[in-house]
Amino acid sequence: MGLFSRRHRDDGIDDARDDGRDDAADVAVGPGESTPSKPEDVGVGPWDAADAPDETAFAGLVDLGALRVPAVDGMQIRMERAGQGGEASAVVLILGGSTMELRAFAAPRTAGIWDELRADITAQLTRAKATFELVEGDYGTEIIAQLPVRTPEGRTGTMAARFIGVDGPRWFLRGVLQGRAATDPDAARQLREVFAGTVVVRDGVARPPREILPLHAPGATAAPEAEELPGLDPLQPGPTIAEVR
Question: Residue 62 in 3-state DSSP?
Fold first, then answer.
């Protein structure tokens, strides 16, 4: 999923970035309702680099630049890039037959951006003729969508995707679950644990809200190839793939 990074997709969902501001069991909810995007339990991440517990910060984590993700046995890491030879803008984690895309954005010092991003996502899903609902999840309001896709046989089908958002100090982290993890809590458990253990490293560069925080490949663990998962064409895989052991 590439929402909010200025790239066009065949399903009609465009990425967008707003540079006009200063830097710095599911329960359905109504479109106008809003809930906090971070649990009140201070023992639950994702973490800001300055606030991560000593036993969590950078220990056993894969360094991807603005994101540090827990190393899980058998998990594959694939970097998404903006165009041929472009910089990495997102990381796709493949685990247990499902995927989770992580993308970190700059955000203002004093306010979160998940409410407005969620409204933008639902508007773009509507334009793409996708069906969706707002549900109550671990981090407040989440979006479960059925995205139109083309199967390997050339037929039109749908694929489930679940959008999760967390507002942090001067950053916003978005996760997108696809595959069984989008709708099955048991299938999502490991990927959600990875999400909760992720550390966001916000640099000191002044950035407008929604600007993507820079990522890089995991370095020495990078491998040239990995097996493609069927039915995940909208992920538009990049060339960098790694497996965490």
Answer: strand
